[in-house]
Amino acid sequence: MLDIPALFLVALVQGITEFLPVSSSGHLVLLPQLTSFADQGQTIDVAAHIGTLGAVMVYVRRDIFNMLASLTSRASRSAPHRHLIGLLVVASLPVIIAGFLLEIAGTDFLRAALIVALANLIFALWLWQADKGAVSYDLTAPDSPQPDWQKMPFKHALTIGFAQIFALIPGASRSGVTMTMARQLGYDRLSAARFSLLLSLPVIAGAGLLKGVSIYKGDISVDIASIAIVAGLSFIFALLAIRWMMGWLAHANFRIFVIYRIVLGIILLGLIANGSL
User: Fold this and answer.
1) Domain residues for 217?
2) Radius of gyration over alpha carbons of the chain, in Å?
3) What is the spatial distance between Cα 23 and Cα 173, in angstroms, rounded to a whole number?
4) 187 phi and psi angles, rounded to 5 deg
5) How many CB atoms neighbour CB 233 within 10 A?
6) Crossing angle between the packed helical segments 4-17 and 24-34, to the nearest 10 degrees
7) Residues 250, 253, 259, 265: is their CA dihedral positive or negative?
8) Among the residues of the chain, which ranges form H helices?
9) Which of 111, 113, 204, 244 is 20 to 30 A from 166 via CA?
10) Rounded distance between C-alpha atoms, residue 50 and residue 206, angstroms
11) Neighbours of 120 (CB within 10 A)
């Protein structure tokens, strides 16, 4: 079992950064390099992802219920939710295919600190540029908290899906690139963020399944206590982070995340230059 402080730190980093546009994978790659803690390993990674998956399922539980109900209903009110299912399927396909191919090729070269630093800088600048654009598609009506997903065409979902492939680079941020592309296409910030949250469901579940299979085939020992601690804490931190982000974007822009990522990227480049990383 890892030390409790190490488990707490992994859960804190994963929970807070998974849905904010700052890259959870980039932070987790850097965690053992910037601290005295050992690499948390695949088992703990899976546990942390299970926790964050649970958090987003709780937050979008109404969307999940409506989508499931729409599968057995022909009522016109279910059409937007059936359309949403189609959007998520279309948007998920590119990263599923790319992730499978990358898993075969190997991803160790992407875990370098330099890759994380440059990805933070590049994708922060893209987010800054995209967020300056005007809103062409405002999916949220004033009298309804739920976006009208029928206003999003499948070609936009596919475009967001292709952008999501960049998330396979640690430091790029899955939530960041999906929200950035949605803003680039002209969607309002809250709709962009909510679609990113919904899109995380198949992606996190799929990634967790792949890692779980890898752990099973590798006959890696499983520490139930560590898994429970990390999953539980990740769930709490992720739910708090999601609620904060959605509240923030209701009245502000993405600038705070852009500044954070640029500062982080510059600090990392400095640490690499002086040999600390």
Assistant:
1) 4-273
2) 19
3) 4
4) -80, 150
5) 21
6) 150
7) positive
8) 4-17, 24-34, 41-59, 61-70, 79-105, 113-131, 154-163, 174-184, 189-217, 224-249, 255-273
9) 244
10) 11
11) 29
Q: Give the residue among 197, 203, 171 at the shortest CA–CA distance from 182.
A: 197
121-125: list long-range contacts, CB under 8 Å, 24+ apart. 121/261, 121/262, 121/265, 121/266, 122/172, 123/23, 123/166, 123/171, 123/172, 123/173, 123/176, 123/177, 123/180, 123/261, 124/257, 124/258, 124/261, 124/262, 124/265, 125/258, 125/262
Condensed to tens digits (0 to 9), the pLDDT of residues 20-35 reads 998 887 787 777 777 7
The Cβ of residue 114 has, within 10 Å, a number of other Cβ atoms equal to 12
Q: Tell me: pLDDT of 211 over 80.
A: no
- Give the pair of three-digit tokens for residue 24: 């959870």
125, exposed or middle or buried, with CB in 10 Å at 0-12, 13-18, 19+?
Answer: middle
The predicted model scores a pTM of 0.88
CB 28 within 8 A of CB 45: yes
Query: Residue 264, Cβ neighbours under 10 Å: how many?
Result: 21
CA atoms of 93 and 164, how far apart (whole Å) = 10
* Among the listed residues 44, 12, 16, 18, the one whose alpha carbon sits nearest the alpha carbon of residue 176: 18
CA angle, residues 61, 62, 63, in degrees to nearest 5: 90
> What's the number of domains the chain is made of?
1
Q: Is 122 exposed, middle or buried (0-12, 13-18, 19+ CB in 10 A)?
A: middle
| Lowest-pLDDT range of 78-92, 131-145, 177-191 | 131-145
Q: HSE on the CB side for 177, CA within 13 Å?
A: 26
d(CA 66, CA 238): 23
What average pLDDT does the segment 202-221 reach? Answer: 71
